[in-house]
Amino acid sequence: MSITHPLVGQPIDALDTPVLLIDLDRFESNVTHLAETCRRLGIDWRPHAKGHKSPDVARRLLDAGAIGLTCAKLSEAEIFVDAGVEQILVANQLASPLKADRLARLQKRAHLIGIVDCAEAADLLSASAQRESVIIPVLIDVDTGMHRTGVPPGPRVLQLAQHIAEKKSLKFEGIMGFEGHTYKDSPEEKSDRCAVAIGHLDEARRLLTEGGLDVPIVSAGGTGCYEWSAHLPGVTELQAGGGIFMDAMYREACNVGAELQYALTLLTTVTGAHEDHIVTDAGFKTLWSFHHPPRLLDAEGVSFEYLSAEHGVYRRTPGGTMPCFGDRLVLLPGYHDATTYLHNEFVCIRHGVVEDVWPLATRGALT
């Protein structure tokens, strides 16, 4: 028998702070928008789970039409498989027999796709697959311009694919890339640079097809560029997952459109009100400001200054009204990936009342 969380049914005023909130109406709207965008474009949606870390969220994405998940870490994938997710792309090259063996064992329970950008990684997966008597599906990671991971576009992609095809314990299923280097471009520049990045994938697909290989999957497109990348020729699936929550970075630095609403916020309390600044109870153990600063919503009298371990400091702005001691304020995370992993659960709100509580089950899943 399931046990109802004691917060369910409580008004938002009954919550202590700091607390991480999901506005369910906005979350559901974002999920619907991303799923319908993919359906309209005739591509699959395989949203990244590294931001939400929650099987409860995953189930709602799958119910909306996602074909599976993308995970950053193998240990995340293991937890999602335990929760019943059957299709997962592990978008991080594995480099040890320990991890390769774990991926091989997971093939007996679900369809887990690995990625490689070198022959050594393919050989490692092949050896583990042979030990476990399974076949591991793989994608080749193509460097589309970010210069972090991936095979440079061109003949080396075909060479690696041919190497994979020779391995009876591996199955070549396609290619992937990430256009993260375009995220903070202006909309005009992003359009051009996403076209170049996806063009590298499309050219790789053409080379592979001409080389006699099937390329059923061409996976790409994070939230920061999904509006520009998803419609480009060659893409078969979209990895954008952060858009289910949105955050300040996606809107203010990446220019992601208002179709995606701010569904994830953090409730904080003013613990100190001073002449020229306020202090809140949400410091860097609650949210991070590294990628992009957080922003107080509906508090025009102050602007972000810095985070210490347990305190957030916000400086008075000219002409604004200062919050008072004890006021409860709503914070918009700068980058939600750097916030969610600090929390144990999402408190899900609808019309000011707690409707559900979702654990972040993959928090701490780093291997």
Question: How would the blueprint of this fold be written?
Answer:
Blueprint: E1 19-23, H1 24-41, E2 44-45, H2 55-64, E3 69-71, H3 74-82, E4 87-90, H4 97-106, E5 111-116, H5 119-132, E6 136-141, H6 155-165, E7 170-176, H7 187-210, E8 217-220, H8 226-229, E9 237-238, H9 248-253, E10 264-273, E11 277-280, E12 295-297, E13 302-307, E14 312-316, E15 328-332, H10 337-340, E16 345-350, E17 353-359
Parallel strand pairs: 1-16, 2-9, 3-4, 4-5, 5-6, 6-7, 7-8, 8-9
Antiparallel strand pairs: 1-10, 10-11, 10-15, 11-14, 12-15, 13-14, 16-17
Helix pairs in contact: 4-5
Account of the 3D structure:
This protein is of the alpha/beta class and 367 residues long. It has a domain at 24-247: Alanine racemase (TIM Barrel, Alpha-Beta Barrel). The protein is built from ten helices and 17 strands. The longest helix is centred in the middle third of the chain and has 24 residues, at 187-210. The two termini are 33 Å apart. The mean pLDDT is 97.
